[in-house]
Protein 1
Amino acid sequence: MNQIQTAAGQRRVIVMIPGWGMNSSVWQQLAERLAINHHLIVLDLPGQGRSQVLEVFSLTAVAETLLNVILEPVFTLVGWSLGASVAIEMARLSPDRVHSLMLVAGTPKFVKTADWPGVPAQVFDEFAVQLAADLPQTMLRFLALQVYGSANARQALQQLKTALSATAFPRLDTLIGGLNILKYSDVRPVLRQLSCPVRAIYGANDQLIPVASASALRDINPAICVHIIDTAGHALFLSHQQEFYDWLLAGL
């Protein structure tokens, strides 16, 4: 696993996990600011960035893999999108090690059902077909979707493209494995039972995570602190860097 550590102030150990298809470079600007006073560990998901591919790609396997490379005994988890799901699973597996959770444009359940706002299941199937047909072009369209409806969209999109180009594209089987986690995982029961502090932040214009997930999250666990950025999309930590930075610091 790729692990980038800095330890300037060491007031808090912060572990940052990117989303589906992305590598740890997406956190670079934020990590540089946080590293002034905190210990940052920035991880790649298996098969993304510079990390090794997992043969069995499941939510639990990914979470266990990340836990095994973190040497610090206690830490705060910051997970974006798929990374948020992984962070929730890590907290379930090692509740004594996770001090708090910061969920960035994340949801415990991505697929829409009668009792949960989300994305129709067939969207994941169609996306998998598009990836198999033209992986690079599909990834670029996905980046555009992440900033759609957001202020500062052009700048955020360029940052996403720069991060994506920092390493080779993930393998198709890794990307499909991640899509399957998004499609089939439901960690709502975990969020109901977690005792650590949980904070979540959403973009009101997110095209991947309906903003209705915010109120649904509170229904699961009223103790979860939810913040919504009105003019943000899915990549809100890039388009609204200062507001996101302030939100993150407030929870440390």
Protein 2
Amino acid sequence: EVSAVAHKIKTHHNDVPIIQAQREKGLIVEPNRDLHKDEVRQIGSLLGLPDELVHRQPFPGPGLAIRTICTDAPYGLDQAKALMQTITPLCSGLSVSPSLLPIRSVGVQGDFRSYRQPLALCGPFKTIGWEALSSLAQRLTNDCHGLNRVTLVLNPDAVLPPIIETITPTTLTPATVALLRAIDHHVTTTLQQAGRLDGISQLLSVLLPIDTMQQGRHSVVIRGVVTNDYMTARPVRPGDELPWPLLQDLDAQLRARFDLDLVLLDITAKPPATVEWE
């Protein structure tokens, strides 16, 4: 059942005014417009298309442009202290240290789109375990209305301030896109060679304008989800679906090869987060 009060959560990049005008004139025929990804795949199988084509992971029309978080100034510093007063008590029981990222990402809560800050956690995640981490991520996004994502810092030696106050000014340049493309290829290839890619519905890397050392570098988020219909999704589970040794090796490789500050793993479900960050 479709809500009658749903907010516009996102638009399609190719549904532009000229197309809308042609649709109103009856010049565009769209017999498949109401099909979701899972239904498109069912039809592809019925048509006899190869499995590698039918089950290929989705890729956004705008490409890596929406996986590069661009900004010229840190966000949310005026509300950061108040937000951390809610965040910190929720984290104290698990020996994790929260760090608020000065950027925004897209999410969805109820019938509305959200544009809120992500949180990074440092801690002994392997000891804590997935169930406790997943429960914490849910509590944080439910109780802290300025958050819509929770991530894990994969470097076990990382120590971050509670509030990160600086960013690396980032725009969509050929060099920035080339960096993300190389990072994304490395992540995908590593998981594929480890035999961990088949169970992931969608795997992506997101470039962040974050360098806690203020050296002009970037950070990256690894986002993997499992879903049947893409209307809702759960994050790929670290320790189970992505073993900790694999993640820590990947973290070390990415930071060394691409001179990154942080490598993060997004552990947020959809909702409240979306699959993509932008």
Protein 3
Amino acid sequence: MSDQNKISTELLGLAEAFLQGKLNAAGSHRLEEIILSEVQYRQKFVEYVNMNSALSMMARQQSPDELFHESYYKRQNTWLKKERVTKLIAAATSVALVCCIGFVAFLIGNLPTPQIGYVAALSDGIEWSSPVLEQGDVVREGDVLKIESGYITIRTTLGAVVDVRGPSTLVMNEQQQFDLSHGLLKAVVPEAAKGFTVSTQDVQVVDLGTEFIVDRELGMGTKVSVRQGHVEANLIDINGTVLKTLDLYDGWSKWLDNGIEKEQDLAFHDEEFNSFDRFRGSVTRLQGCARASSVDLTELTPGAHVTKDHVLIIPERQQVSLTEPITVQTLEGLLQLKAGDLVSSYLVHFDPGKFNTKPPIGSVSFDYPVTAIIGSADEMLILDSVVGYEHATYPQFPARALELDVDGDKIHVSADRKTVKFNLDMLPPDNFDQFRILLVQQNQ
């Protein structure tokens, strides 16, 4: 098959994909490339899709060739008529080209923009100003995120993890470029996503391998804080021109304001970072009905925090260094923890109340392997004072535990031990459930 025939076959395949609504962004760009390369391909495409536009109207009239032959035989091929017909052919070709290019431009403009990531986690009770997103939803270039309260986590395809706390407005221009109109954003950026940039009206913050926060209040400038690593902060004027370039490292904070075109050092405080830690800890993804908590919970007894249509995943104390050995019964047998082991705990809390429309099925994934699941009331009680919230009130009754009979609660740990899947029994009377997920770094 000649190259020309191969291209013609490819063109028809792309045109067919378009007609079936299956043409993706890459296909549309290839279609445009072929159409613009030669007149014959433009003609083939126009004929195939049979556009209901100026071109189709022309097609119902005499063709340029018919006009030419009619002129030739009736007017004895005078140069005047030939010139007119030539102009008509040129005009028809031009119209065809314009229609074709315009149609392809319209097609490309209406295709989904490239995917840049997905929603990895949501808090309970999140309030939206933009269209509502669910966990697992794809986010694309140009999407605008507006939340009035609560938390959301976006994970980009290059692995950058972006947490946003409401009220915030965020424009996701492209995978490596987010614009924060106002609000609070934390980013953790791996080596693969180095160069990830967050811009506000005051500053461009370019990641150079780090964990940082950008906090902007309307009319109050922008605060940039680095917990670890290194960022480049560029103070910009109202036209986007860089006025000053600053390097920020571990434990540094800066305030920048383009209204007065100044920057100032600030004392570093961990509070904002800690608020995000309490939101999800080392959780990388929530699925199904799993949700993170948007507030610090100190009352975890029945009825105190009802979880209608969701199950809460609550980061408790993190990296607790044990002062003495502890032996606890887990779902997989006895676990012996030594003094000096670092323990991080996540409480799974289900208190459905009276009215629910969704089954309590979901999963939670972590950065690190899960060491154990604690599901008995007695073992939970032992750990309440060790890894639980310092001032929290926990249930003291046996029904707090998992019921792992045939028709009861079901818990499964993935083969790589980084994901815990659950399917909880929501039928009364024993439908209040709590269990703990422990991640342990053992003292060698």
